[in-house]
Amino acid sequence: MNLKTKITTGFLAMLLLVLSIGGYAYYSLRQLDRSSRDVLKANLYSIELGQRMLKSLDQLARKPLADTAGTAAFVAALQEESRNVTEPGEQQVVSDLQRLTQQLQQHQRQAQGATKAGQASQLGIEAEPYQLGGLTYQMMALNTDALNRKTEAANLRADQANRNLLLFATLAVLLGLALVGSVPEAAVQPLRKLTAALDHATERNFSASIPQESHDEFGQVARAFNRMLGQLREYRTSTAAELITERNRAASIVNTLDEGLLLLDENRTILLANPVLCELLGMPPEKLLGRPAATVRLENDLFQAMLRPLDAPNREAAVAEAPLLHISQRGEEAFYQLAVQDLVSFNEATEKTEFVGHILTLRNVSDFKKLDQVKSNFLATVSHELKTPLSSINLNTRLLQDERLPADERQRITGYIRHETQRLQRMVAELLDVSRLDAGAGIQLDVQPTNLADVVSFATTTVQPQLHDKQLRLEFHQPPRLPEVRADVEKTTWVLINLLANAIRYSPVGAALTVRVAVAGAFVRVSVQDHGPGIAPEHHDRIFQRFAQLPDKTGYRGGSGLGLSIAREFIATQGGRLWVESELGSGSTFSFTLPVVA
């Protein structure tokens, strides 16, 4: 066993024992704390409530019919006690108290409605406060017994914990003494031997080695020292080899870069071109290295474009304004950005900084270009989607200004304006939701037990004007008894309205839409089925991505491409799942699930 293992094993044993003592102490304190908290909450609070109830009964015993304030105070304390029942038999006592309290309140109400002075004394309720007092004492006795029993159990646990902690502490002291006696000696003895051997080596006698007497860390140090002596002997003859090794290492780093790199000297002679650049230029290294850049630029258009900023009067501005280089690579279009950096070196002879060449790099920015294209497409789509309803609203508003229009025509035009306004509101809401998610604000939910039948009813009522416009039939199926689910009503309604709006948008005139609600294990499943053109299986995941748009056979591209993405995030945050089942030509069924209230 080596020295490190010995020391590590000893300290690990000590650490394990200390952690055991600390863990056991923490566990014992937590148990005692939990027991005391349980007693305070379960028993002492019930006793305190019993005292308040007895105080109210004392006041009530003097005027059992007229003292409604005493009855109200008793009822308030009894309600608190009913929520703090913890002991066997306590629930029965509380139930009897509630029954007698209800009788007393009923008699008081009858007494207040009596018209003759003698009628109140005939109700026979004088004994009820005393019965309530007896039951209250019984409830307090149950909690007092439980309090004594739990206190005695806590004392026993504390005594046992003290004995165990004393035992652990004794073991820790013994183990610590053993480590103090063995670990320092095991660490110092090899160092003494190493110091004696090093004294011989300081005489520059590199042939004197350290004897290797063990296989522990000291033996490893001895072997390393002996190797160092051999390296010192070979130092003068190995300098050139080390320089070559370092050069090869630097070349390896350059060759593994994922950017194209070109190195020119002060005369613009090509000193280095890594494999990425050679592949982009379509030229092997032997046709580049050592040749003047002015000659190579005549043979290669890409090389010509790379050198063009070097000839500009303001090179920095030329590099900044240079367009992205469009290069076809392995059958795919790629975009590269050019960067130019001067190389300077300090000349110790002249004590001046001198220019020694250029470094030109080509960085692949295709991913950024794609993101920029997605942004441009999104802005164009949003602009189109905003322009269309705004133009429709403007036109219909002008029509409404014509006083010759009949009332039914005005009503129809008003419906169109409302529909387009809702469309604008939905788009703006989607953009706001996306901006909040991108800003890291997350989704704020108000999850509570919800009846999905009410959600479905509200959502279908909301889209009725759209159904009427396209002459669509809405069919609804749900079981007679539907369990409640844990959901945010507002966001779940938004998801269902969005799914219905998509189904209406893609359904042919006169078709049927079907909404189904069914129990699926621990979830409730809601489905919206249409008879539209359908979606190819390879696009099922893509339609839930942001800004995704799939053109149909008529060329219509849909909305902003955000609705389904936001809907999936809403459902997933509530613990459910949103997916689609569809094939081309067979319509689509969008479904989501929400967990049933446990």
Automatic annotation (TrEMBL):
It is a multi-pass membrane protein. It is an enzyme of class 2 (transferase). It catalyses: ATP + protein L-histidine = ADP + protein N-phospho-L-histidine. The keyword Kinase applies. Its EC number is 2.7.13.3. It is found in: Membrane. Keywords: ATP-binding, Coiled coil, Kinase, Membrane, Nucleotide-binding, Phosphoprotein, Transferase, Transmembrane, Transmembrane helix, Two-component regulatory system. Its main location: membrane. It holds the Pfam family HAMP. The chain crosses the membrane at residues 6-27, 165-183. Residues 381-598 form the Histidine kinase domain. It comes from the Bacteria. Residues 185-237 form the HAMP domain. Residues 90-117 form a coiled coil. The keyword Cytoplasm does not apply. Residues 246-291 form the PAS domain. NCBIfam families: sensory_box. This is histidine kinase.
